[in-house]
Amino acid sequence: MSTQSNVKVVTTHVLTAMKMRGEKISMLTAYDYSMAKITDLAGIDVILVGDSASNVMAGHQTTLPITLDQMIYHAQSVVRGVERALVVVDLPFGTYQGNSKEALNSAVRIMKETGAQAIKIEGGSEILESVNRILSAGIPVMGHLGLTPQSIHKFGTYIVRAREDDEAKKLLEDALLLEEAGCFGIVLEKIPALLAKQVAENAKIPIIGIGAGKHVDGQVLVIHDMLGINQDFSPRFLRRYHNLYAEMMGSVKAYIKDVKSQDFPNDSEQY
User: Fold this and answer.
1) What single-letter DSSP state applies at residue 83?
2) Is 189 a catalytic residue?
3) What totals of helices (H) and strands (E) does the chain contain, helices first?
4) Active-site entry in 189, 201, 247, 269
5) For residue 182, which of 132, 147, 217 has the smallest C-alpha distance?
6) What pTM was computed for the model?
7) Which of 3, 4, 178, 255 could form a disulfide with 143 if both were Cys (CB 3.0 to 4.6 A apart)?
8) What domains can be seen in the chain, in order of their start residue?
């Protein structure tokens, strides 16, 4: 039996309907054609082409170095492998902050050159002008609040955000501002579960959590973390569904052994 829901193609409207009927939204990252195709066929609702590609694909310590051209390349690859899921692409650092015209140009490039269905943008009231400008062009926007990795040098740490009353109050206000502006959904990263619950209950749009507890409308993880490819990152919120690191290591070592011993290729593996 297929694990996919009855919906053929996931749209922003479908996600809103899922929230209204209480169906949780599943979301994972993908950065290439092959992984995206498998993830889509498995029945995932949303695929995020995250700027986390800077970490897991390019080996950078932060998400800041990845460029718009690189994000477009990854998104093009993902879109070619997807038939059902909604594909959302991160606007990378430096392509929208402080300049709403540049934000619109960046979003337009992503939509025109990749075929994705939406973009995601980090921040609240401080980037509202950029959000409004992108939305005015008819481009669906997903917000991102809480721990915003593009601001890591401002925070100085990856600890849980919005524990203090003032920051929690601003986060809730920002969420409602983004909803009022027209965002179709918001990612909340690494904030207290009760605050995330409050946001989800007050907002009519879907709220997706990563390290934001179980009371939100859906969950997102980085696929390399979830599959156990990346062994260097083990936050409390991460559930590993596989240890692909160990499996790949074992398979590569077995291949090396077979080549060295001349066991591969054998008679049936040649022409």
Assistant:
1) S
2) yes
3) 11, 8
4) 189
5) 132
6) 0.94
7) 178
8) 12-226 (3.20.20.60)
